[in-house]
Amino acid sequence: MGVPTVVGMSATEGTGWPEGVPPVGTWVRDTRRQCDAVVMAAVGTYVQLRPVKGGTEWDAKPGDIRPLTAREELSARTLARSTAMQLRVSGQ
User: Fold this and answer.
1) Cα(37)–Cα(30) distance, rounded to whole angstroms?
2) pTM score, two decimals?
């Protein structure tokens, strides 16, 4: 299930992101890594992403990311909350 594209339109056009760059805090899918992430910053021509479950941030090109669908975002937020609860229970 992907984001529909129009012939002649890049993957980031039509997302509503100014200049094709998502705002900090946006939940996205890195299509190159097939990984859900949260936008942490936009630096130069790259967007810094953090995995939903936490971990090391990485840089991605804006053309390699897309917004999550409502269903994907709900699933990602549920996973993030579950991971946080597990860490809290285990005392980490």
Assistant:
1) 7
2) 0.73
Q: How far is CA 53 from CA 18, 38, 50, 80, in A?
A: 27, 10, 8, 5
- Write down the mean pLDDT value for the chain: 82
Residue 16 pLDDT exceeds 80: no
Coil vs helix vs strand at 53: coil
At residue 84, the pLDDT reads: 86
Q: Token pair of 72, please?
A: 């994907």
* Residue given tokens 């090391």 in the structure block: 56
- Measured between alpha carbons, how far is residue 33 from residues 2, 11, 22, 47, 85 in Å? 15, 16, 18, 14, 26
Q: Which regions of 22-84 does DSSP assign to beta strands (E)?
A: 27-30, 35-43, 46-51, 58-60, 65-67
* Strand 46-51 relative to strand 35-43, pairing: antiparallel
